[in-house]
TrEMBL record:
Residues 279-382 form the Protein kinase domain. Belongs to the protein kinase superfamily. Tyr protein kinase family. It comes from Mytilus galloprovincialis (Mediterranean mussel). This is Tyrosine-protein kinase. Its EC number is 2.7.10.2.
Length: 382
């Protein structure tokens, strides 16, 4: 029987506690501390009367895109309950201080654990800094799976049910998502129909097994051990031909919502990608709720406006959504997107530099207040 020294035993206990704590923290983050609209950690969570909570910015955007049947109302993104908008707007919904407190507690625990691991001790009263946050690159497996229309990546159980239960989908509509227990597990979610309960979604855990007997290693995927497949595509093909024990045959893949398509494209290198080293900040021009705007130099020659994400006010996904919109709005009268630097946080969005500032301020306080009626009409006609 192997004997451990007191020091070794303490190290094993520390590792075990850290593993359990990390697993619990990830579970809490996934189930309770992530907005079900943007699928990112909460930023200023607002609680609805039905007790579902969402990021303030996400809720504002959702209400704008999904107005209710009655004026001044909207359906809850989760339970679809008709919700009245307060007189003061979304801001008047109750802040969810419980979620904020829990999130802060977990974040403090993360910082303390990081400092212990890197300095060996944690001194009260000493200023510590959390590690930098580079955007994690996708694994080759994740990149490959994203090419299939049935793969939805890291989405929650609730979100998958909401999409699959949308009107118009037949029985057998399905998607495959990352398992909530670990990133290397998967779940098959299928729309089914019950005589008593109507349409519902059934979830099947997809197990992954590696055969190390031979070289190279062979991976198998299965829902039941009796039917193993070399890939998720083979699994989908089999259950598309016959139910083979499932609730029904897989008929068609669920359509990806636009928000998820944008999420898949976020941070991907394209013609708008630029390295952080190519940007030099010159002076601060202003600050808004979600970003600071700086005058910058790009590649040492061109003046640009640099919008820098405020990480404590907006999620990376929501901030990058703005760049996704600008990529599609290439018009002479719309401010032009030049580049995006997204390899690390905070995100930088580079646009044309407008030396005269906002049009409204230019017309009220700048040289524009001296323009003639003819000139103003010419501007308005554009």
């Amino acid at each position: 029987m192997m004997m451990l020294s007191a020091q070794d035993g303490q190290e094993w206990l520390t590792m075990a506690r850290h593993t359990n704590r990390s697993s619990l923290r990830e579970k809490l983050q996934e189930e309770f501390l992530s907005c079900k609209i943007c699928l990112e950690p909460f930023i200023r969570p607002k609680a609805l009367p039905c007790l579902h909570s969402f990021c303030e910015a996400c809720l504002k955007d959702y209400v704008r895109r999904h107005p209710g049947e009655r004026p001044g109302h909207f359906p809850c993104p989760m339970c679809r309950k008709d919700t009245k908008i307060p007189a003061g707007g979304i801001n008047d919904f109750q802040d969810n201080f419980v979620l904020l407190s829990l999130s802060d507690t977990l974040e403090e625990d993360d910082v303390e654990t990081w400092n212990l691991n890197h300095s060996g001790s944690f001194n009260q009263g000493t200023t510590h800094f959390s590690p930098p946050k580079p955007l994690a690159p996708l694994t080759p497996q994740e990149q490959y799976l994203r090419t299939y229309d049935w793969y939805f990546g890291k989405v929650s159980r609730h979100a998958s049910e909401e999409w699959l239960l949308s009107p118009g989908y037949p029985k057998g509509t399905f998607l495959i998502r990352q398992g909530e227990a670990a990133p290397d597990t998967y779940t098959l979610s299928v729309r089914d129909c019950d005589e008593l309960r109507g349409y519902l979604v059934k979830h099947y855990k997809i197990h992954k097994e590696t055969n190390n007997d031979g070289l190279p290693c062979i991976e198998y995927y299965y829902i039941t051990p009796k039917r193993r497949f070399r890939s998720l595509q083979d699994l989908v093909t089999n259950y598309s031909e016959s139910p083979d024990g499932l609730c029904c045959k897989l008929l068609q893949a669920c359509l990806k919502p636009r928000s998820l398509l944008w999420a898949f494209e976020r941070g991907n290198p394209d013609e708008f990608h630029t390295e952080r080293e190519s940007i030099v900040l010159i002076k601060k021009l202003g600050s808004g709720q979600f970003a600071e705007v700086w005058l910058g130099s790009w590649h040492g020659s061109r003046q640009v406006a640099v919008k820098i994400q405020k990480r404590d006010a907006v999620t990376t996904s929501a901030f990058l959504d703005e760049s996704q919109i600008l990529k599609q709005l290439q018009h002479i009268n719309v401010i032009k997107l030049l580049a995006v630097s997204s390899e690390t946080e905070p995100i930088y969005i580079l646009t044309e530099y407008m030396p005269n500032g906002r049009l409204s301020m230019y017309l009220r306080e700048g040289k524009g207040k001296d323009l003639s009626v003819t000139q103003l009409l010419w501007i308005a006609a554009q």
